[in-house]
From TrEMBL:
Pfam families: ECH_1. GO terms for molecular function: catalytic activity. This is Enoyl-CoA hydratase. InterPro entries: ClpP/crotonase-like_dom_sf (IPR029045), Enoyl-CoA_hyd/isom_CS (IPR018376), Enoyl-CoA_hydra/iso (IPR001753), Enoyl-CoA_hydra_C (IPR014748). PROSITE patterns: ENOYL_COA_HYDRATASE. Belongs to the enoyl-CoA hydratase/isomerase family. It comes from the Bacteria. Signal peptide: none annotated.
Amino acid sequence: MPTSLPVSGNNFRVEIDDEGIAHVVFQPAGGTPVTDARGHGDLAAIWPQLAAHPQVKVILIRSEGRAFCAGGDLQMVEDMLDSDAARMRVMREGRDIVQGMIDCDKPIVSAINGAAVGAGLAAALLADISIAASNARLIDGHTKLGVAAGDHAAVIWPLLCGMAKTKYYLLLCETITGEEAERIGLVSRVVAPELLQEEALSIARRLAAGSAHALAGTKRALNHWLRAAWPAFEASLLSEMANFSQPDAREGLAAVKEKRAPNFGGGQ
């Protein structure tokens, strides 16, 4: 019988199936999944639980929505603009998401459909094997919001697709399709949208049938490349949180709400 792990919010659920695959499922079904303040905290806390769970062999992150996960909701962004305590909480949680996924010795697979933004994009790309639908849209929206790209990109994008592509997409906030993401090395594979869930589950099953010790040792060794980049990640995260106290972030949020281009002051 499948086992569920409790989470405090309703942004996603966690179910462990009979094959030892822990399904981290963004929801609601058919809607646009986001992370609110509670969901962001849940996403930060779940990785050590899954890493220690005796039934879990592999983790599959997927979505039942028309998007993978569209990132933090506007209320969470407003809270960060108004409250230093909220910024510090989100900073700690952002660090815990990245560190939790890197330190989890169990393989993580992501199935990326629709838009993946913010914490959703972090979860998608920090997975050990990322499968994207050809029409998926990967968007690191930080600089468009007026804040530094701080939640995961500095630790992994340069390793995945090189510094030139990293700077191009992060500085310009360009949307990356699933096909382009595979071409530049940002994701492991791209498949037709109708094959996405089947392909990701097939890969998760292959990993679940493998040697847990061999997979863990390989992942742990490879992830030292990410640990070596940790100072860059910390610097990006601190810059992001500092930017939330500056006027550009308020203008960025106003532009999102009003569906227009932001008019930043241009100062440093």
